[in-house]
Design brief:
The protein has 196 residues and is of the alpha+beta class. The chain is built from 5 helices and 9 strands. It has one domain: Alpha-Beta Complex (Peptide Deformylase), CATH 3.90.45.
C-alpha cells in the first residue's frame, strides 16, 4: 500500500525517533508498504518519520543511481545491488574529508542543495530479521544512509545549510508546508492536518 509522505513542517520530522522491538506489530507489512511508497515517489531512501512514524527505521535502495553516467562501472555495480533495511541503527564512526553532493528529500520536494558529509561511515543496525550487523560503507551509499539516519535523529538536510541558503529557500519551504506544490506522489501536509 502506498502511504502519504509527510511534508516539511510536520513536527514528526523534527522528533528524535524511538527504538522498536522484535514484536513491533506488522513490521513485515510496514516494510513492504515503505518500499512501495519509496518506489512510487522515485526515492532511494525512506525513513519511518517520513510516513509519520517516530521509530528508528529506514530503508535504502540505491539502484536508481546506477543509471548515472558520472559513476564508474564498479560504483554503478555497487549502487545497483544495494538494498537494505536498517532498524535501531547507530552510526559508530564517520571519517574522511567532507564532500559536497546535491541532495533532495521526498518530504521537501523541489528543493535540492549541496550538503557536505564525510565519505566513510561505520554503522551498527538490525536487519529485517532482527539480526545484528556492523558494516562500513563509503561514497554515495554512505551518503544516502547518513541522510536517512538524520531523519530518525530529527534532522533534515536543510538544517545543514548555511543561514544564507536557508533564507533563500524559506519561501519554498513555507509553500511545501502549506501544500502549495505540484507533486506526483501522495503527501500529507501539516497545514491540511490542522484544518480537519
Amino acid at each position: 500500500m502506498i502511504l502519504p509522505i509527510v511534508a516539511y513542517g510536520d513536527p514528526v520530522l523534527k522528533r528524535k525517533a524511538k527504538e522498536i522491538s522484535k514484536d513491533y506489530p506488522k513490521l513485515d507489512v510496514l516494510l513492504e508498504n515503505m518500499f512501495e511508497t519509496m518506489y512510487n515517489a522515485y526515492g532511494v531512501g525512506l525513513a519511518a518519520p517520513q510516513i509519520g512514524l517516530p521509530i528508528r527505521l529506514f530503508l535504502v535502495d540505491t539502484e536508481p543511481f546506477s543509471e548515472d553516467e558520472t559513476f564508474s562501472d564498479e560504483e554503478k555495480e555497487q549502487l545497483k545491488s544495494f538494498k537494505r533495511v536498517f532498524i535501531n541503527p547507530t552510526i559508530l564512526e564517520e571519517k574522511g574529508d567532507e564532500w559536497a553532493f546535491n541532495e533532495g528529500c521526498l518530504s521537501i520536494p523541489d528543493v535540492r542543495e549541496d550538503v557536505f558529509r564525510k565519505p566513510v561511515i561505520t554503522i551498527e543496525y538490525l536487519d529485517e530479521n532482527f539480526e545484528k550487523k556492523t558494516e562500513t560503507f563509503d561514497g554515495l551509499i554512505a551518503r544516502v544512509i547518513q541522510h536517512e539516519y538524520d531523519h530518525i535523529e530529527g534532522v533534515l538536510f536543510t538544517d545543514k545549510l548555511s543561514s544564507f541558503k536557508k533564507r533563500l529557500i524559506k519561501g519554498k519551504l513555507s509553500n511545501i508546508s502549506k501544500g502549495k506544490i505540484n507533486i506526483d506522489y501522495r503527501m500529507r501536509f501539516p497545514e491540511q492536518k490542522k484544518k480537519r
